[in-house]
Amino acid sequence: MPTVLRTGPYRFFFYAGDRDEPPHVHVERDDRIAKFWLNPIRLQSSGGFSRVELGRIERLVSNHRVELMEAWNEYFGR
């Protein structure tokens, strides 16, 4: 599972088995994890993050959307 971005306490990554799903990114911090679709950006699932922190993460996903999509396409060959 490649890490495609680290910013602050967050690690953004894909799972190798994510190939058949629409572009998205998993975000983790400590024992918390969330999944965001990239087009359009929206929360798909979350475990342990507060609403405030999810808003912060969503802004990070939005600010880095281009590089996250490029990483997705490079990794999965699309």
Could you describe the 3D structure shown?
With 78 residues, the chain is of the alpha+beta class. It has one domain. Helix content is 32%, strand content 37%. It is built from 2 helices and 5 strands, in the order E-E-E-E-E-H-H. It has helices at 51-63, 65-76, and strands spanning 3-7, 10-13, 24-29, 32-38, 41-47. The protein has a 5-stranded antiparallel sheet with strand order 1-2-3-4-5. The longest helix has 13 residues, at 51-63.
Keywords:
78 residues; alpha+beta; five-stranded antiparallel sheet; 2 helices; 32% helix; globular
The general outline is: globular
| Extended strand count | 5
Question: What percent strand?
Answer: 35-45%
Main sheet: strands, sense, barrel: 5 strands, antiparallel
Short summary of the structure?
With 78 residues, the chain is α+β, with helices and mostly antiparallel strands. It is 32% helix and 37% strand.
